[in-house]
Amino acid sequence: xxxxxxxxxxxxxxxxxxxxxxxxxxxxxxxxxxxxxxxxxxxxxxxxxxxxxxxxxxxxxxxxxxxxxxxxxxxxxxxxxxxxxxxxxxxxxxxxxxxxxxxxxxxxxxxxxxxxxxxxxxxxxxxxxxxxxxxxxxxxxxxxxxxxxxxxxxxxxxxxxxxxxxxxxxxxxxxxxxxxxxxxxxxxxxxxxxxxxxxxxxxxxxxxxxxxxxxxxxxxxxxxxxxxxxxxxxxxxxxxxxxxxxxxxxxxxxxxxxxxxxxxxxxxxxxxxxxxxxxxxxxxxxxxxxxxxxxxxxxxxxxxxxxxxxxxxxxxxxxxxxxxxxxxxxxxxxxxxxxxxxxxxxxxxxxxxxxxxxxxxxxxxxxxxxxxxxxxxxxxxxxxxxxxxxxxxxxxxxxxxxxxxxxxxxxxxxxxxxxxxxxxxxxxxxxxxxxxxxxxxxxxxxxxxxxxxxxxxxxxxxxxxxxxxxxxxxxxxxxxxxxxxxxxxxxxxxxxxxxxxxxxxxxxxxxxxxxx
Length: 516
Known about the structure:
The chain is α+β, with helices and mostly antiparallel strands. Among the domains are: 5-176 and 293-389, Methylamine Dehydrogenase, Chain H (7 Propeller), CATH 2.130.10; 399-431, no CATH class. Helix content is 20%, strand content 36%. The chain contains five helices and 33 strands. It has helices at residues 157-161, 285-291, 387-392, 420-431, 442-515; strands spanning 5-13, 20-26, 32-39, 46-49, 58-62, 68-73, 81-84, 91-94, 100-104, 109-114, 120-125, 131-136, 142-147, 152-156, 174-176, 183-188, 197-202, 206-211, 216-222, 227-232, 238-243, 247-252, 254-258, 264-268, 277-279, 292-294, 299-304, 310-315, 320-324, 330-334, 340-349, 403-407, 410-414. The strands form nine sheets. Strands 16-17-18-19-25 form a five-stranded mixed beta sheet, with no helix packed on it. Strands 3-2-1-31 form a four-stranded antiparallel beta sheet, with no helix packed on it. It has a four-stranded antiparallel beta sheet with strand order 4-5-6-7, with no helix packed on it. A hairpin with a 5-residue loop joins strand 10 (109-114) and strand 11. The chain is elongated and about 145 Å long. Residues 363-370 have low confidence and may be disordered. Component of the RIX1 complex, composed of IPI1, RIX1/IPI2 and IPI3 in a 1:2:2 stoichiometry. The complex interacts (via RIX1) with MDN1 (via its hexameric AAA ATPase ring) and the pre-60S ribosome particles. Its main location: nucleus.
């Protein structure tokens, strides 16, 4: 099965009646791949763990009207598990490895569970008001929470799991309080904690860029409308900020400038600290045409495709729009969920264990088979902390398959084996002549030869000019030294002649005195 990118979206009814769903669509054609019913998760209340390491993935959806968490597996289109929670959740998040789940409540409380065992490792009052959004960093080492109280806190996962700190109130690694109104979205950048940056949006018309390592504010971006959701390019070159009026602003984090010798160069935008403010205005028609996308419908969810070429937009009317990032051209609109509200949207490779597309090996190039792949374990979450269950819990680790390698001392089991035949084959590939290893074509080589010949001619001309300058300098230096030598010789001869004349005059005077 070849890897294909797909769109995963969660929907909720626009009115109080009815149920939404979680659906997967092909990103290129818009074809529906799978649908999971009986869920109506709100904004920031859906989380996905992808299939990896030979285990199937799953989806979590917190219900808005009940303290229930729905669990779905990619392999079945039915509800796999209903987890009864301590209270209703206003936001959830899972770490990228699928080990832990965090849930925030309307009272500002955060719960922290291990997914495979269901053990509640921690529960604490993190904010004064509702927790609007939760995000794990890319390495899963920290949890960030944004609240109605306009603050953002970063929590180290290691401290939340520490047995010695279970009787103490968790303290955040840092707290950012520069927003003045409720926080609406958080996006974590690439990098391990704390060597990463974070984007946060709030109702106060601002998006702020933070540096976790220095615990400081780098730049503040001001927008004409309140920002409801964000998405950040994986290379951190630009981000998109959407508002409820249907406006999506593209903000480039780099700009072109001219250096001291007039050449074009790129430089980073912002980074000046608290006083560094950048206003994103859309009054200028030229700027609006370049950086503004007008959807015409309230935007509720944003994401960028895995190739960083497409912007996928979910709206309050159930439409999913796909835009080309380079030209801002609308490529496709999915109206399958008309009458619903898109509350969550993400792009991912089509799961190999997706219902109807099962692959036993979970490999990208494997053929499809009817047998189900092993599913990742999801246990019912504890509703209160249990010290005894935590002490008795054994941490399970999935090890890769072991291989037997024949050595001089006998057979040995290793985790990673590199067979001799495979090593020789790889070595032969890398040391073979360029013509056999997929060298460029004849036309490409001719173009390269012409380029090199032109470069050699330019270098020869520069070398000739340099030699001419050097010869001129050498001749000038020699000529000056010769002239200085001649002048010194003339001065010496003049001084010698004067001395001889003085001697003759003295001799004549002595003769005159002798005669007298």
